[in-house]
## 1
Amino acid sequence: MRNDTRLSRMLHVLIHMGRHEERATSETIAQMLGTNPVVVRRTLGLLKEKGYVRSEKGHQGGWTLGKPLSEITLLEIHHALGTPSIFAIGLSTDHPECLVEQAVNAALTDAFEQAQALLLQRLGDVTLAQLAEDFDERYRVAMLP
């Protein structure tokens, strides 16, 4: 199963947007991500619906932030992208009458629910501004002689 990288990719894009004054075109973003501009427009369209980005059409058009990075959490972007499944691990349902399968699925379901709740809480605690600050510090350290 392929990993869903939309969250990390969109966080990357949004932090770049926060660092640049000029609008970013779908073509520029697509080139940065190694994807198609249509995919960029479709994905950023989900964020636009929630007010996290704005777009302007035309020759001077492109994408800009709709809110400051400090007002956007990772959880909000996760939800805007359609809350894809956090875990790729699934339950076996081949033999629902099997008591062993029932016991295994009950234990796994409980573990998945607890892990997902913790992860979603953590995503809600982190703003994009905090990620940008982490980048700034990493950049500063990387540039030291």
## 2
Amino acid sequence: MKHILLILSVLIFSTSLLADNYMDLMCEFEGENPEDKFGKSMCSLDFNGDTIDDLIVGTPYYGPGGQGGRVYFYLGGDDFAEGPSFTMTGDSDNLIDIQIRALGDMNNDGYDDLVVPNYNHTINSFEFLILLGGADPDTIADYAFIPGDERLSNLPDFNGLGDVNNDGYDDAGTTNLEGCYYILWGGDTLHLELFHEFDVDIGRDIDGIGDVNDDGFDDIEIGLWYEYQTGSHRYWDLLFYGGDPPDTLYAVILADTVSPSFMGGRPTGDVNDDGYDDFYSCVGHSVGLWLGREVISPQPHVYLDHEGVGGISDYGDFNNDGYSDAALGNPSWGWYDGRVHIILGGTYINGAVDLFLDAPEISICFGGSIAVGDFNNDGFDDVAVGAPGYSSHPSFHGKVYVYAGNDSLTVGVDDPDIPDITGTGLMHAYPNPFSSEIHFHLNVRSLRELTIQIYNVKGQLIETVDVQDRDMTWQANDNPSGAYFCKLMYKNEVLEVAKVILVKQ
């Protein structure tokens, strides 16, 4: 009976932490036509240079018979909720808006820039249209690029990379899906250049993840499939450090798996305000959070124990506390109702969800796209959530819901009295939270005289485990649910501390 009451008290406590947080629905926008799938892609940027974030929303199937596509520009400000300021519409020869992306300020003129993919029937190929921002922005493409100058029958990603070579101009990246990766270098004139070619059949993603080692150059994550046995493939995520020029030899293998939860890396900003940018990436079926360091570990510092999140995400500061927060979409949750997980930054990060945004309707793929920005200029970043499966009639008009950031959002599982987490990458504890046992992977050369000390939240030592192997397991046994701190020790020296959460079922 005591065990049942303990579980109930933990669940009630956890629920109350989530219930204290909220984000009010600020406004919503709906697609114009049946089958539009409005909100299938989104991004935020300052397109007109007024220091207020703008929301760009796409509907890929706009037009007769789903031909053409349309991009909606909602300029931020007091009248943000009133509707789009202008639109960009394709036609039967040019099918725009399959994945729109913000690129940063590529020509360093004070205005953020945008890429809009387009299928050009005249040349039977996908191409990337670059729209440069301005005080009075228009929808006329300033550049059109095709990676490798070859016909593209499938659409690769085209993503902002930040300032990779620290020349004051933001850069972008793409691939031809056949092992060649390109950087679109920012400057007074933009130019596309081959960055690296892999001897593989399938190239996938190139993503900017921020300056994760704080050396002044933004860094790159590349994903690709390679053949390791006849007829079989594995997926690699590789970290490349930026530089002038950037290093073409990868620094770290972040993932080597047959079943990635998603492909490529996702920037998160500085979640613990230590001066290093942080990022998410896949670890098999799981999602890991890497905290920035001078040298990046191949193992994440934190695992997110939440199935289906990670690939669709954006970040900002929702409660204006100086820590970067993340919104991660799971559009397939609950028979495709969808859900968004809000994870707030703080000094100590354990990957727990601080707020769920649940779908207002059923089967709408809520979280199918996410864009974060301070659209109403109140000092708090807001979260726009795309629901391309929304149907006001028996069709898929699509809808976008915008939730307002506020100062009530607090980290429900943070504790200012817990010991500092060093984050050296020597010890990885997973899964976290856990229900009965937790596993440790040690990234060390020697196991001699190493121990793992387990402390409860009161700072009491409850168990010492002698390290016999680089992969170990601790059984929680009769220990109650709550937070525990696992110290990797060499003699009397603390090498690393991992905070873990036990929730017994």
## 3
Amino acid sequence: MKINFLGSVVLLLTVVILSACGRSLETPQPSSTPAPTTPAASVTLTASAIPEPTATATETVTPLPTPTDQGDCINRAEFVSDVTVPDNTNFNPEDKFVKTWRIRNTGSCIWNLRYALVFLKGAQMSAPYSSPFTETLPGGTLDISLDMAAPAQDGIFTGVYQIEGPSGRRFGMQDGNIWVRIVVGTGTSAPTTPTYTPQASATSLQTGTPVTNSLTMTPTVGTPAPGGAPTDTPTTSPTNTGQRGSCTYLLNSDFDSQVFVLINQARAANGLPAYTLNSQLSAAALKHSIDMACNSLLQHTGSDGSSPRTRVAAEGYSAKSVQEAIYAQPPQYGGNPQSAVDWWLNDSLHRPILLSSTLKEIGVSYVNVTTSLLGGYFTIDVATP
């Protein structure tokens, strides 16, 4: 009896253990209608069992270089091909199209979002003025696409573009600029009345090294100026005249005042204190506006080789930081204080000058020379003493 009793106990324990092992090894069979809680439980268990996939990637991310990180590099580009819309492609009036260029970074700088393709001259054809780059290493290629629209009238239209780097300096391809050229309709009835695209430029010169902008001022065909059709006369009359050699220029103190007021209104709207008008900065701005107007220039380097910093210093102003913005457009085509300030505020390079939290004082000047290429020339010099 004792042996039979022990044998029964052992047999019973063996059955229990095997049953337990059988449950632990059991594999659930798939069901066409799983219980509602099964997916949630499965997801929770799976997620806890998988290592974080982003841990390694986070450790290897390298931020894009800032402009100061690339101070010694060289900006250079090479045209590779027209990916879409080769030269002289024919469109109907107002047809929409996408123009894509392929270019190669042949310099030593890394292109990033601080670089952009910018409109230079010709017909803009509803394209944006500026289109930012994506990161492109030296030796790499980049496809740049712009949404465009053919003008409403027949003709042959060309839009020319350059690259703008972080400092505001522009550069083209090794063999020139890049462009888009289309034929609209028959191509035989190009418009005869030119309209103008305003030109503007900015530079920041804390180090005192001149930055030259290579803008070429050319009357553009088929590109309406902001503000509508041209007017016969400027909105206000010149208040004074001056002479520089054989060049007669017109001053307009009303325009100077309006620019100053409009900039400070924009600063107030952004919670910033007003700039203080400084006569020395205004004198430096005036000299540069006269120089540009009399010589049909649009650049920060004067005809005598001067820079914004040297012009400000020549007026006796000692500056820790100097920044300059310029703008030019014929007054009869909307070249007025409002268009100048609007242009600056809507451009990524100019806006920080107008809305700086560190700069304190400003000089403003407008000069018009009726025989110059772009008529009216605005200059602002903004500085911290």
## 4
Amino acid sequence: MLDFLIIGQGIAGSVLARMLEKSGRKFHIVQSDSYPSASRVAAGVWNPIVVKRFAKTWLADETIPAAKAFFSEEEDFFQETFFISTELIKLLSNENEKKQMEKRWEQMMPFVEADNSTKVTDGVEAPFGILRVKEAGYSRIPAYLDACRKHWIASKNFIKADFQHRDLKRKDPESWEWNGQTYKQVVFCEGIAARNNPWMKDLPLSNTKGQVLELSIPDLHLDHILNKQLFVLPQKNGNFRVGSTYEWNTEDLQPSEEGKAELLSKLQKLLPNKKFEVVQHEAGGRPTTSDRRPLMGALAEEGLFAFNGLGSRGVLLVPYLAFCMLEFLNGKKTAIPDEARLQRFA
């Protein structure tokens, strides 16, 4: 009998599984590559400020140091870089936005820095000024997931399979059986696929579709993330990731011409004198809840748990919340933040 079966090898399932592994727990993690993964599409931008409202993100003070510490350990273990720090520069749109920023300045400390610049780089003007977020960056999520998978394939912890909920059976009061193997506990980290989960059918998990472009912009030179209605993220290959759309209440997970047109229209306003070419167009579904907080905790049946609903800020949230989830699974019932407890929807 193994300790855990983790369903889903996105960022949530992978980070939790690595923490379980480090604590000596025995597990399998299962993933189907036939279902679009939001983690593999996401650009991985992390930022402790909601730049639209000039406010700290939920748990910003806790999640930044947790993410840095976790990924630093992982980089040492895998001998690869996953978590990159770089400034995020938001271009202010008008005088009203500038006044709103100044009014909320103290609420954003210590993650922001004063800057009166009116030009960011050649061809990128900021007549109303900028907000410089000095604690920001991006994560190479697909590279991290691939490194974890390769490691787990070698250690026989990874199972590539099209998981069907009907195949998970109660074996006895203290264990579950799937694919001929017995597990003490099962944790669902399956993203929007959990909407088909019979044990989570009463929880308000929805799909927020996001589309991202990779562009070639030959005469744009940036060493930071640019933000104004969308983000522009420099890549090592000289291209730029641009996103993202937010499309609610849709079942479609495929890239669309409408999504591409929306992003290109916003980019044209941001970079009116730049020429660009679309290299790649991707889409994925973010698992979100009605109150924009995760779903964490024990499900109705003994031995089943959820770690889901991390939305568009999962990169920053996951290391801190995965540790909370680990503590909860180890018996510390108060470890999960109140705002994330799935029982709030009971």
